[in-house]
Amino acid sequence: MDFGVRLTIQGEMGAPGDGLAQYAGDMAVRAEELGYDSAWIPDHLNNARVAPGERGPSLECLNSVTALLMRTTRLVIGPHVFCNTFRNPGLLAKMITTLDEFSRGRVILSIGGVWFREEAVS
C-alpha cells in the first residue's frame, strides 16, 4: 500500500515572498523522511481557499512540482489534477515528459477540468 500527502502551495501558510515556497519544499522533504510515497499539490490560478470574490496567493503548479522534485530523491510528485484549460495540451505533454526524464520517473500527470468557477471565467 502506498501513502501520499497533500502539500500546500497556496496562501494558507503565507504569501509568496513570505517563505511559502520554502515551506512547501520543507514539507516535501519531511514527507519523504516520514516514508510517504507521493506528494500532491493543487493547480490553481487563484487561491481557491479564500472567500468568493477575493484573491489569495498561490504558486504555479508545474514549477512547484519541478522544485519539489529537486528537493527530494524518492517521492513521486504531481498535481491533484492539472487543469486542462490552463495550458496548451501539446506543450504540457512535452513539459511533463521532459520533467519525467529529469526526475527519473517521479512525476505524475493527472489532467481534468476546472471545478473552481472563478478560475474558469477569469
Task: Compose a concise summary of this entry.
The chain contains four helices and five strands; from the N terminus they run βαβαββαβα.
Major sheet details: 3 strands, parallel
Which architecture per CATH? Alpha-Beta Barrel
Q: Classify the secondary structure makeup into a structural class.
A: alpha/beta
- Beta-strand proportion: 5-15%
Care to describe what's here?
- This protein is of the alpha/beta class.
- It has one domain (4-120): TIM Barrel.
- The chain contains 4 helices and 5 strands.
- The chain has helices at residues 20-33, 61-71, 89-103, 117-120; strands spanning 4-6, 38-41, 76-79, 82-83, 111-112.
- It has a 3-stranded parallel β-sheet, with helices on one face. It has a two-stranded parallel sheet with strand order 4-5.
- Helix 1 crosses helix 2 (61-71).
- The N and C termini lie far apart (39 Å).
- 23% of the residues are buried.
- The mean pLDDT is 83.
List descriptors.
TIM Barrel, 122 residues, globular, 4 helices, three-stranded parallel beta sheet, two-stranded parallel sheet, alpha/beta
What's the arrangement of secondary structure elements?
Layout: E1 4-6, H1 20-33, E2 38-41, H2 61-71, E3 76-79, E4 82-83, H3 89-103, E5 111-112, H4 117-120
Parallel strand pairs: 1-2, 2-3, 4-5
